[in-house]
Protein 1
Amino acid sequence: MIATTLRRGASLLVVFASLFPLAYAVATSFKQGSDLFSAQFWPSRAVIGNYLALFRDQPFGTNLLNSTLVAGVVVALSLALALLAAWALGRVRFRGRQALMLTILGVSMFPHVAVLAGLFELVSALGLYDSLAALMLSDLLFTLPFTVWVLTTFMRDLPKEVEEAALMDGAGVFTMIFRVFLPMLWPALVATGLLAFIGAWNEFLFALSFTLSSTERTVPVAIALISGASSYELPWGNLMAASVIVTLPLIALVLAFQRYIVSGLTAGAVKG
């Protein structure tokens, strides 16, 4: 009984610690004026002026579309390329495979700032500076090693009987990957794609360094550049409203795809 009570109490504490920052941001986003500095959690008069000002005073809608486009393209390219690489690394035996896997893992460990100068030179040489293509390229370089490593682990654990049956039926490489393995990898693809989307959606350093015009910025940079005349005049209501808008799509994605994340990877793959 005591152990059950302690577990429930710890669970409630974790839930409270996780949800309180979001709840505070939502409550603050509806405050204006002196209510922003009031100890009262929920405003005495909730207003949506912060949300309206956010889209009126800057191209925040365009910034949202930029982040969606960059993250979507990065996830699509990462999963498509990683799926092919995962099949080669997970199902094909060749010399140097383990060394290649360790190299991929090592690349994913580099901090963004360590390669910022080199990426800036590459982006400038390709003529991609101040464009969304620069962010797609830079985010892809860091997202792809992670997706390859994770999908290779899942691909390696798929039952060999399925592959042998497909080969006996005369299936080619692409048929095997996209029509045999892909249906069994949906949970892994959803989980990996979601993590890649969150990483690209929240990426700040490259977005700040490789874009200049306000119409090419993504939402992390747009939020960081919201400022007032001094630190005491920061539009906290606008900042909280922007934070809520940026966070809600990620929460919606997790809730929408949670059944794929927790479902079995190979359920029903082998009959008999």
Protein 2
Amino acid sequence: MLALSTDSLHGYGLNRIFEFIKEAGYDGADLVMEEKNFDTMNPDYVKKLVDEHGVPVLSLQIGDATPKKLKDAIEMAKAVGCKVIIIQPPSILNMGQTMWLKNEVPKIRAKENISIALENAPSDMILGFIPKHAMNNIDELRKFKHACIDTTRIALKRQDLIRVYKSLQKYLVHVHLSNVKGSKGYALPDDGILPLESFLTKMRQDNFPGTISMKVNPKFLQAGDDEKLLKHLTDMKKYYETYFVHPAMLDPSDASN
């Protein structure tokens, strides 16, 4: 399944974002719940958009996963029929939240029958050498059992994408796909240093069952120019289809590039 992260169209209203997702032919939305964007926090309104546009919410993203925010996300998930919630690693300084995530979230996950997946941490540091986030390594993601990969974060940490994928394959439920161009993350998938073609083809070979969500900085999509934006969205869908949906149709020399 192919989703578009609503982060990719930040600046547009949520109704317009759903229109773009439908027009570009994506399978659904990867909805970022933002406390200051009231539309994204309103289950009734989001359900209305789902019904009006025929665009399902395939996944939800929340930032700092406090008990209150996770409760709100679960309510949203139930309202729109979503089965995946992506959460972020906590601050290294918040031991209480870290222990709650490790001890209580697996119980909530089982009770609610919803996949609550931990995303790999950004490369942010405190004082230049202390990781800003707890639960920020592959072992922690494996222990959490449900994992999400953000490909830009892997590149900015100078990790090997295919190696990380193989380590997490058993636990992987969601992927945020983007490339890194120069020092800039969240670039278009076909324009950067990451071997995303090989990554997508490998996931297809392994029958990856989760959702792949395009999460690209709006400036790379030329957001604000609707015609150019829509072309980028449709080009990204074609890219996904080439390397994930129909990789057998590739010329062998193309797959290795």
